[in-house]
Fold:
Amino acid sequence: MNPTSLLNDEIDRGLLAIDKIDATVQEFQNEVLVVSGRTKMTAMIAAQLLENFYTCLETIFLRISQFFENNLPKDQWHAALLDRILRRFRHFKRCYFELDYDWARLDYLLDVYRRALPLVRMDLDSFKSFLKALGSDS
Structure:
C-alpha cells in the first residue's frame, strides 16, 4: 500500500472516531442533559467530549504533519503541533482544572463544535481527494 493510501486510512479512522464522538455529543445534549440538567457532572461530561474531539483532530493533524515530514521536535511535538494548527481550541480545558465549569462558556464551545464539525469533515474530505490525486501521480 502506498504512503498516501496509508494516510487516507489514518484520516478515515479519525473520521470514524469523530462520528462516534458526535453521536455521543448528540446523545448527551438530547438525552442526558435534558434529564440531568446543568450540573457539575454534566459540565464535566461536556468538557470531556470537547476534549476528545480536540484530541482526535490533533491526532489526525499529527499524522498529516508526519506524512509531509514537518520535522516536529521529538520532545516538543505536541506544543509545536499546537502552535502550527490548533492552539486556541485547547485553551478551554486548562481553565477547568479546579472543576469550576462555566456553562455559558461550555454552551459557546458546544456551539463552536457544532459549527466546526461539518467544516472539519469537508476539509478532511477535500484533503483526502488531494491525497488520492497525489498518490496517483507517483
